[in-house]
Structures are given as structure tokens and as C-alpha cells.
């Protein structure tokens, strides 16, 4: 169970506890590959002192081994995220590793509850340097502890987490607030409150959120602390820090109904989804930049990195889109969904799960992207750094960037990818009062209750190849209850009768042994962007259902580059089933045009040679960069048909 909001005063639903995925659709394939390959292979890296030193740092801090701290200060959190993924697998071998790790983590904890291997090994003062990521690590430990306790009943890690929270509670709140970089601890402390029922943890969350921001000119947009949280209205700064903050605020709103925080979240959400979100679910356009946005002081900009840009500032080749940021969007959207029951939040979760998330990890299940552009080109004249590389490593050529198995300088994204992939079943459904919410479409089974009667719901579908979905409901005896089935925001319609409520079809009736069928018509569509998105002006991208498609050089004729391809306004698009790595997907064959417009000069006169036709295969963006080095693009120029009248 991801989040236990069953007793939360302002939640409409909570995570299910008994759900499983099946079939060969994209989500099930990603989930199964995570269980079989991603999590075990990543564990071998995390537990190998010659590679990551993540586990070894705890041995040194506990006094079990000599040595120094190695790796970034947030490596503790990387290990916690991997352990969370391992817990969810319910694999006996991994469960034993988690049990041993829990004991090691408990041994490393100081008597006063403090736990951060870098600081303890160095023997320096805690909470003295804001960028040591202490509260970030604390938050991930708290989340791990709650999930571990729910899954196993073992309270070893829960005890560690409560002692950390109690340590924070007796520190100067202002001092803790200065160490809120990548603030996962808001989510962690509130989940501790849910598990333990101890009101002091909710009060601690309130205190810390009250002190996040409000610094004015002494703050930075990068850390979202120029304005107090209740005064913020824009998605600004470092996109991972931002989305973790907004998810924590949303958690607090689920528990308290804080109207000022809800108003802030609603405006920030609208700002993001209307002007700063990539069509793939990517978040954080900029490698580096300068921002005046939070305080709207155009004479006093602050440096930002891995960051949201200005409205509509969405470059393609140089898009940053850190993997952790899109996953942070899922955490935030999930908590907004729990409180509101509004399908627009499930729509954005779907966008990430079907596009951004699978692109982060290779088809091999053990290589990863930290940065996720929407265009990759050859012969770029400047390097695009890979954040996981040490400073002395030269980035590869622009069309040879590939996923990496291990990122020495920064391995934060892969364990985040692992835990979300492992937890995918828990984003498909949610339970309410005698009702089941169906948020995502994937062959699966969930067990719930209506009015105390056990109910099993099975979903069968080959989505997103087709939009045909069958739901089988089996109740132990006839019982009244409700199914709420999401209507995707991109869909023209959904073929099922029933009243609509905030983007869901509501089936309110008696159930026993029943079957419900529905159809979501799928068709290839060409999307355009707002004219302020300069890099894709007069361009289109190809989508079908929730899937964003891309063109790779592997599917281009010899001698043709990405810059040579355009899509006619009336292009015919043929749909065929995928196979191999594309199994469970539809492939698109687009009647495109090859343009003679290539130039090596900065500017050149247009070549008037007519375009020639070519039928090109487009593949899901989530599976790009699995067929060798090459170019890729999501957006392509549009050729419009012009009708001229004859005088």
C-alpha cells in the first residue's frame, strides 16, 4: 500500500492492499521486468562496496567496518529507495536482504535518533549545511519504514523512523527548515502520522511546512523558498525539489483540508500543466538558468538548475527532464487525486507511466537515463553533460548518449525508477467507501469489499493497442457498491452508459457475478503546441491514446536525417501491432515527406526541390534508444495544405 489514507479526514479514497498485474501490456511488462531484472541487478550494485558504497557507508557508521564515507550525501536515500522497491517484490531472497539491512540501519542510528552516514562518519555537527540532504534522506527512510511495516509487520525500520522524527521535533524548527533541500520528509512525516496515529507527527509537518519559504530576497526559486508555501502560485526552480514539496503539501491537505495550501496547489498545478509540462510527462526544462518568477522581481534573478523554466520554455534537444522529477509529479498527482477524485490527476499519472517512466529504463531492465530529452541529434557542437558522470568524464557525442547501468556521481534516479515500477499495481485502483476507483487500464485483479462483503474485480484488456476493456465483478454475495471508471482526458468519448462525475463514469448498483464492457476509441492524432513554445512552432507530434510516438534514425532511409522529415497535414497513418520489444504496443506507419532543406550554414536560401513521399515507422517514445545509437525526435515540421482560389 503506497499511502494509507483510509482514516484521512479529507481523502476520498486510499491505496488498495491486494492488487496484481497480468498480461503483456506495457505497464505489466515494465512491472514484471522490474521484479525480475531491475531490482535484483540494482541491489547487486547498491550492496557492492567496490561500486556504490551505499551499504558500506552504514557499516562504517555503525562501527562494523573501518573506512570513510564515499559517494554523494544523498546516497543513504538512494539505498532506502531501493530497499522500498525490494520490499514490494515480496521475494524471499530480497526480503532477507531487507531484514539484514534494517538491522544494520538500526545499528547505525545514534542514540538521539539522528541518522546520516556522511555526517556521522565525519563526526561533524548535524543540520549545519543545507545541501547535505539530511531531511531528504530522512524522508525516504520514513516512507520505506511505513511500507516495510505494512508489508511485513516488522517494526525495526518503523522504530528507526519514529526516532528520527522525534529527533527533528526537538531541534530548532528554523534550523531544520534550513535543511529542506529535496524535501521528501514532508511526505515521510505525514505517512508516519498515518501509520502510528501520533498527532505530534502531523504537527511536526505543519511546523516544517510553515517555515518552508518566506525568505524573500534571501531565498531562491531553486529551492522554492522565496515565498511561503501558502503564497506560492507557480511551479519554479529545481523540478525534483519542487514536486517533492508540492507532494508534501498535498499530503498535508489530505489530512487537514488546509484551504490556503489547497489554493496554492491548485494554482501551481494549473501553471505546470498549462505551460511547463512536456507532452511526455517530462518536468524541468532547464539544465541551468535564472529565474525571477517566485517573487516577480525582474531586477533580482536567482540561479536555477535542473529546473522549471519560464512559461512555455520547453526546449527539445536540451530538455533536462530529470527522471526523479517526473516520478515526483506522480507522487504529487496521486495525492491530489486521493483528495479530490478528479480524473485530471489520473490523466497526468497515465502520461508519465506510459511515456516518461518506460523511457527512463532500457528494455534490458538495468540501464537508466537521468536526463530525458524529446530530441536527440547528431553533431551537436557543444556537450550535454550527464549528471551521473564524474567531472573528469567527457560526455559522449550528441547522438550516442545512452542509458547507463551505474552513475557514479549521482545514482538517485534509478532506485526511484525501481520503486515506482515495483509499485505500479497500486496506481491502477483505489478504494473508497463501498466503491472501487479504476484509474488505469491494464489486465489486473484487485480484491476489495463493498459493505463488508469481499469483492474481486478482474480487468482484461490489451490497452493501449485497443481501448476494449472488460471488467468482471465477483462478490461473495449480492451487495450494493460503486465502480468509478476514468474517462481519459484525451478521449473523444467512452462507450459505456452511466452518470459522469469529475471525469469518471459511476456505476452504482447491486453486484454479484457481473461483467461490464467498455470501449475507449483510439485513433492516431497530430498534436500541436501553443505558439509560445518556440522550438515546436508549426510542428506536430504523433500520439495514439496515452502513447506519445517518436521517430528514430533506425527507421529512416539511408542518407536521411531528422531535419529532412516533415508530416503533411493530411498524412495517412496506419496502425499495426508491435512485436519483440514493441509487444503490447501499436506501431504507427506515417506517410511523411522528405524535404531537401538541409544546410551546414547558419542561414541559406531555400532549396525549391519538391518534397518526396516516404512511409516511416513511428515507435513509442517510452521505448526509444533501445536499437543502437542514433537520432530521435518527438516533434516534426508540419506541411499544411493551402487551397488557393482561382480569380
Q: Give the integer mean of the pLDDT values.
A: 95
The biggest sheet, with number of strands, parallel, antiparallel or mixed sense and barrel status, is: 8 strands, mixed
- The strand count comes to 20
Number of helices: 15
Strand content: 15-25%
Rg calculated over all Cα atoms? 25 Å
Structure, briefly:
By secondary structure, the chain is α+β, with helices and mostly antiparallel strands.
Description:
With 647 residues, this protein is of the alpha+beta class. The chain contains 15 helices and 20 strands. It has helices spanning 26-46, 54-62, 75-89, 92-108, 117-122, 134-152, 156-169, 173-177, 185-196, 199-210, 239-256, 259-275, 323-340, 343-360, 413-422; strands spanning 19-21, 286-291, 302-307, 375-376, 429-432, 435-438, 444-450, 453-461, 468-486, 500-501, 504-519, 524-527, 539-544, 547-552, 565-568, 573-577, 586-594, 612-620, 632-633, 635-639. The strands form 3 sheets. Strands 1, 5, 6, 7, 8, 9, 10 and 11 form an 8-stranded mixed β-sheet that branches. The model has no long low-confidence stretch (mean pLDDT 95).
Keywords:
647 residues; alpha+beta; 8-stranded mixed beta sheet; 6-stranded mixed barrel; 15 helices; 20 strands
How is this fold's topology laid out?
Elements: E1 19-21, H1 26-46, H2 54-62, H3 75-89, H4 92-108, H5 117-122, H6 134-152, H7 156-169, H8 173-177, H9 185-196, H10 199-210, H11 239-256, H12 259-275, E2 286-291, E3 302-307, H13 323-340, H14 343-360, E4 375-376, H15 413-422, E5 429-432, E6 435-438, E7 444-450, E8 453-461, E9 468-486, E10 500-501, E11 504-519, E12 524-527, E13 539-544, E14 547-552, E15 565-568, E16 573-577, E17 586-594, E18 612-620, E19 632-633, E20 635-639
Parallel strand pairs: 6-9, 15-20
Antiparallel strand pairs: 1-7, 2-3, 4-19, 5-6, 7-8, 8-9, 9-11, 10-11, 12-13, 13-14, 13-20, 14-18, 14-19, 15-17, 16-17, 17-18
